[in-house]
Amino acid sequence: MTSAEPLRDGAVVAAGARARVRVPASTANLGPGFDSIGMALGVWDEAEASVEGDSLVVEATGFGEGEVPLDESHLAYRAMVAAWQALGLDAPQGLRLSYRGAIPHSRGMGSSASASVTGVALGTALAGLDLADDTVLRFVSDIASSIEGHPDNASASVYGNVTVSWAGDGDAGDWRSAVLAPHPHLVPVLVVPQRRLSTATARAALPTAVPLAVAARNSGRTALLAHALTADPGLLMPATQDYLHQEARRPAYPESMALVDALRDAGIPAVISGAGPTVLALTSGQGEEAVRAVAGDVEIISPGTTSRGVHVVSSS
Ligand SMILES: Nc1ncnc2c1ncn2[C@@H]1O[C@H](COP(=O)(O)OP(=O)(O)OP(=O)(O)O)[C@@H](O)[C@H]1O
Ligand SMILES: N[C@@H](CCO)C(=O)O
């Protein structure tokens, strides 16, 4: 744990405690900002946990229903336990977790980060910590980012808005994030394919080293991206040009890369969303119609961004 002190070693979460949280989806990278830039999207998972009974009961509805494990290996439950461990608390014997998933899995909309954030947030809320407190939010972001292995999606789901995250100088798991308001004209449009691609598979396609000239080129575009997203969307075309990861992963999502190429040829700044295969177009007002004119009859959503990150809906 890096940003909150343990409560009471060996203590357990109080019987009868209950909390319900909402957590937004996210898009990561936005082109060159690999593993560092994220943006929250207006699609929300919601989950409730209550300390009751004498065993673990997990229910999953929506995306994930019939697919995710309904036991101790459920990602949100594992994240909850990680939070309690970091806080010096033992897991209660009985717990009911109900998860309603609105974020499609393995498409590039940060479903795993949202599930991790959900679990850590529920764990801290059941422990009586206030999710509106900055230190607690940082704790949630740190633990969820550590579970993910990178902070871009989790930080956006925790804080909302656009996040720029970096590894601190301390131990592994020490992440920091600056939170930026996206330009009001920015309209994210996502083309969401039916096929899935796990982040693990997409990461396995990446090189372990890149030449200095490539890194330098990508640095310039990433710095420009932070400016274009917040102050000057007119620069989004050069700002979304990536040199680190998308080409290396092209064989894993050829149709998505073909669409990114076609949208960019049409003057629409487009990138792969997260580890793909969803395509993200960062439009400035022309929105869905311009994307549909290029993409054709495919599933397109315009969920908007959100300035709100994870929050408690109710607790007792
Ligand atoms: N609500 C959830 N409940 C339980 N497990 C989940 C949930 N959401 C995601 N997961 C787990 O995470 C996996 C998907 O994670 P993965 O990192 O591959 O994709 P993603 O997070 O949707 O996309 P990306 O990281 O590219 O944005 C699922 O197969 C499942 O194992
Ligand atoms: N930065 C991550 C986002 C997906 O989790 C990647 O591209 O692998």
Automatic annotation (TrEMBL):
Molecular-function annotations in GO: kinase activity
E.C. designation(s): 2.7.1.39
Span of domain GHMP kinase C-terminal: 234-294
Localization of this protein: Cytoplasm
Main location per the UniProt record: cytoplasm
Manganese keyword on record: no
Chemical reaction(s) catalysed: L-homoserine + ATP = O-phospho-L-homoserine + ADP + H(+)
Alphabetic keyword roster: Amino-acid biosynthesis, ATP-binding, Cytoplasm, Kinase, Nucleotide-binding, Threonine biosynthesis, Transferase
Binding site residues for ATP: 104-114
Membrane spanning stretches: none
One Pfam entry name: GHMP_kinases_C
Pathway assigned to this chain's UniProt record: Amino-acid biosynthesis; L-threonine biosynthesis; L-threonine from L-aspartate: step 4/5
Source superkingdom: Bacteria
Presence of keyword Cytoplasm: yes
PROSITE patterns for this protein: GHMP_KINASES_ATP (PS00627)
GHMP kinase N-terminal domain: residues covered: 75-160
Known function: Catalyzes the ATP-dependent phosphorylation of L-homoserine to L-homoserine phosphate.
Family, similarity comment: Belongs to the GHMP kinase family. Homoserine kinase subfamily.
Protein name (database record): Homoserine kinase
Gene source species: Dermacoccus barathri
Name of the gene: thrB
